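Summary for the funding panel

The consortium committed to producing paired sequence-structure records for every protein in the target list. Below we show the first two records in order, beginning with the earlier of the two.
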Amino acid sequence: MTDLSPRTLILGRVVELAARFEVLHNQRIGRIAFKKPEQWCKPFFTAVMNQESLRRIIILNASGTDVRHTSPDRILSIDIQKPPLEEQEQIAQVLDSQATRIRTEEQYLEKLKLQKKGLMHDLLTGKVRVKMEKSSEAVS
């Protein structure tokens, strides 16, 4: 509920903490407890709360200039649409599968970047030679 970063990178962020032990947290971090937990899918709720559009509302309603603050009352005043539980679970499942796919693609991209870097190094150091084919249109 407090953000010291210059671009409000963490204000209003929500994370599902699955700790099997007691956790001590800072006074400016909130804990969300559902009045009717059987009506909410936690991964869906986390995804909704972390949407950029909702975070913009939290940031716009925050107080302070250098250090931004929000409060439980400000967060609770935001209207969040709640589809039926089954739909929440389906949405959360799609979001999770897409996040997994994105992570896989990002890992593959990093692998390709490393491979390119290695190949470029080999070419620039002469470890691998590039053969130039003479074209029939070459002028002597």
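The next record, for a separate protein in the list, is shown here:
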Amino acid sequence: MNNGKAIRYAFRALQVAVIVVILGFAIYAVRKQWNNSSAKLEQIHPNWVWVAISGVIFLATYGVLLETWREVLRIWGSRLDFVNAARIWTVSNLGRYVPGKLWQIGAMGVMAQRAGVSPIAATGSSILNVVVNLVAGFVVVGALGWPLLDLPQIPGGRAFAIAFVLIAAVFLAALPRALPALVRALGRLTGRNLEIGAFPAMAIFVSVVGNLIAWVTYGAAFATFARGVIGITYGPLTAYIAVYALSYLVGYLVLFLPSGIGARELAMVALLPAANLADPAQAAVLAVTSRLWLTVLEIAPGALFLSSDALRRRPREQ
């Protein structure tokens, strides 16, 4: 066996090990949630039609984000067909179940380069996706979450929301200049050369629009899921969007928790009754069941692609 083949086999073994670790974290997370919530789950009788519709909306949102990413890559001078983009997107998303969440960025960049995307477009688009997704989420919360920000326990909430949306808008406008500096700083921290030059303004615009649409449709999926689980929805759709986005962002920003498990649920349990969308008992059920449903929807596509890749490679290696 020559050195080149040995390196390829070693790299493939490393990939398999990383995948096993990621899936292990995800399975552990689901089992822990199930064990902690089985008593609450016995009390509900879901309408599976509404639950299935919520799943369709959620997966359609994946489609929006995939097309947004493909368009960003095209603006950067690279192209990916939809199937390859879906494989990279869903498999790299499994990295959010590893504490730290930065695995997701690295995995997307590496997989995109292996699929023929230029290093600049692969690295730049993966970083852009995460930054814009977070900022767009907070913009959605500030724009649609007025009832939450008018709560008595948040003095000056409405003024804070206006200020936050204005600051976020300025930040988005400054992204073409700010992101290259952020990438250079990240390169110094990691010891890697991540110099990628200026971010195309049109790529940032497309990413912002796609992520804003995605946060709205994710919230719609959550509202539909709530209808399926507790039998009725309370309050406007905008409130569900704001609660879903804010609780998801809280979980995402707690970097040491895989996929924000625990932090997201605590935020949702507090926010749903505050927004008059559920009573405390219903909020607990929705927090747990939506986490289980979300975990399945996030894991299943990536796991299917991994299984398909393994089956396709096997005949050539035997």
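Regarding this second record: DSSP finds eleven helices and no strands in the chain. The chain has a mean pLDDT of 77.
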